[in-house]
Amino acid sequence: MAENPMLKFVVRSQSYPEKRTVSERAHDFQEISSSFAVDSAEDQAGRCSQCGVPYCSVHCPLHNHIPDWLRLTAEGRLREAYELSNLTSTMPEICGRICPQDRLCEGNCVIEFSGHGAVTIGSVEKFITDTAWKEGWVEPVQVDEPTGQSVGIIGAGPAGLTAAEYLRAAGHDVHVYDRHDRAGGLLTYGIPGFKLEKEVVMRRVKRLEDAGIHFHTSFDVGRDATLAELRKRHDALLVATGVYKARDIKAPGVGTKGIVKALDFLTASNRANFGDAVPEHEDGSLLAAGKDVVVIGGGDTAMDCVRTAVRQGARSVRCLYRRDRENMPGSQREVQNAEEEGVEFVWLSAPVAFEGTDQVTGVKLTRMRLGQPDASGRRSPEPDPGSEASIPADLVIQALGFEPEDLPVMFAEPELAVTRWGTLRIDHRSMMTSVEGVFAAGDIVRGASLVVWAIRDGRDVAEHMQSWLKARAGTRQRVAA
Question: Where are the residues of the annotated region Disordered (predicted)?
Fold first, then answer.
């Protein structure tokens, strides 16, 4: 009788793919960890306890069949593992790289609760699909018979790309419009290469192009066409723009030269790594080289900024966050990576003013203390009187999160209803906006969130749009008859 390959968590320790040394990785934008070797992936997958109620799947927004593809991996059935993983996710190798597994699947792994260390689910997921690409198992999108219907998608980020794939597979003519010159949204221009190498994103985009999806890049809705004009071109529209408006700091001196927005800084860096000419690097305005850099914020975007600044050759990099380490929203793994790379975290601190006249020279900060819990359950930070101090800064990066842009005005569509937060208001039963035939999904509906939730929303909205398009086609046929 063959030995059971699973339940090995009692005899095998938790292991992640080995990270490159700091001296190697802190000077380039390549991913910091290699993929598992085959035997390592099988060994780690075999640690799964095959729970009757798999909390890892429950806490995955996509409800991936995690225990099942872990077992297939442990048994050496990698192609089947990939095919099962691919059933629920359009981008498993991307989620394996950038999902905060410590807060989702791995953070809810039963053997993590038992003290044995979670199964390294994300690393196995990355390994499975990277292997599938290498071996040629990733097949072209299978497109059904043409429906004669056309769909327009505004935004080429994870929600838009996911919906595009499912709607194209259903046989619709799909057009994707994006303001950037490359598809991918934040996957392309917001997330640094050391977390997600751009070839990983571009090969997904090429697969969609090969399926006949039309990408209209450098296309700004409101400038190149209004929403009303796009509605005339297509039978249905999806708004999946994400949220890009940076939250600003309100403090004296905030408009001083050298205080920049996180997304501007990250986009310039990613463009440079594509080989594009970046004027803001040439004049130094968005380049950290040789500077004392201060990043304000405690989320994953702030972690991307501090680690990018290190790689650009900053003289020093500090991160100010108003709460403590335990109450920060970003991934603890990213904090650890940043600390290894030389970033200094100044916990329980907040800026009160920026020093300098023509150019920022420093940040005046106050120490904070944690008071009573707020609505989110985290303890609210309060200034600690008499604790003000100054730290030097040549470049200050604001990484306080993102808010929606004013889409009704930008799209010249006053009938587009929004919530009090500026996100698009939808009927959650159909995911349709207040404008007939216009749907919305991703961060523009739920607010700034995770890539995996955008993929989930893209999957869900494609199903709703398909139902609506079928009903509309049926109505037309009855009228014609």
Answer: 369-390
Distances (CA, A) of 107 to 117, 118, 120, 151: 10, 7, 10, 38
How many angstroms separate the Cα of 355 from the Cα of each of 84, 286, 387? 55, 19, 17
Amino acid code (one letter) for 285: S
Task: Give the span between the Cα atoms of 200 and 58, in whole angstroms.
Answer: 27
Give the CA count within 13 Å in the CB-facing half-sphere of 474.
6
Question: Which residues have C-beta within 8 Å of that of residue 272, sequence separation ≥ 6?
Answer: 278, 281
| Domains, the chain, with CATH or none | 8-135 (1.10.1060.10), 150-243+404-480 (3.50.50.60), 250-401 (3.50.50.60)
CA distance 254 to 350: 13
With tokens 């600690």, the residue in question is: 384
Intra-chain end-to-end CA distance of the chain, in Å: 65
**Nearest CA to 454 among 209, 120, 95, 204?**
95
**CA-based angle 21:22:24, to the nearest 5?**
70
The rounded Cα 96 to chain-centroid distance in angstroms is: 12
The answer to whether the beta carbons of residues 179 and 216 sit under 8 Å apart is no
**What's the token pair of residue 85?**
């993983």
CA dihedral of residues 234, 235, 239, 241 (deg, nearest 10): -30
479 residue type, one letter: V
Looking at residue 296, what DSSP letter applies? E
Full pLDDT tens readout for the chain, 481 residues: 457 888 788 889 999 999 999 999 999 999 999 888 888 999 999 999 999 899 999 999 999 999 999 999 999 999 999 999 999 999 999 999 999 999 899 999 999 988 999 999 999 999 999 999 999 999 999 999 999 999 999 999 999 999 999 999 999 999 999 999 999 999 999 999 999 999 999 999 999 999 999 999 999 999 999 999 999 999 999 999 999 999 989 999 999 999 999 999 999 999 999 999 999 999 999 999 999 999 999 999 999 999 999 999 999 999 999 999 988 888 888 999 999 999 999 999 999 999 999 999 999 999 999 888 877 777 888 888 889 999 999 999 999 999 999 999 999 999 999 999 999 999 999 999 999 999 999 999 999 999 999 999 999 999 999 999 999 987 766 555 5
Whether this model's pTM surpasses 0.90: yes
Distances (CA, A) of 128 to 3, 183, 259: 23, 24, 42
- Exposure letters 247-284 (e unless 16+ CB within 10 A, then b): eebebebeebebbbbbbebbbbbbbbbeeeebebbeee
Closest CA to 308 of 319, 320, 324: 319
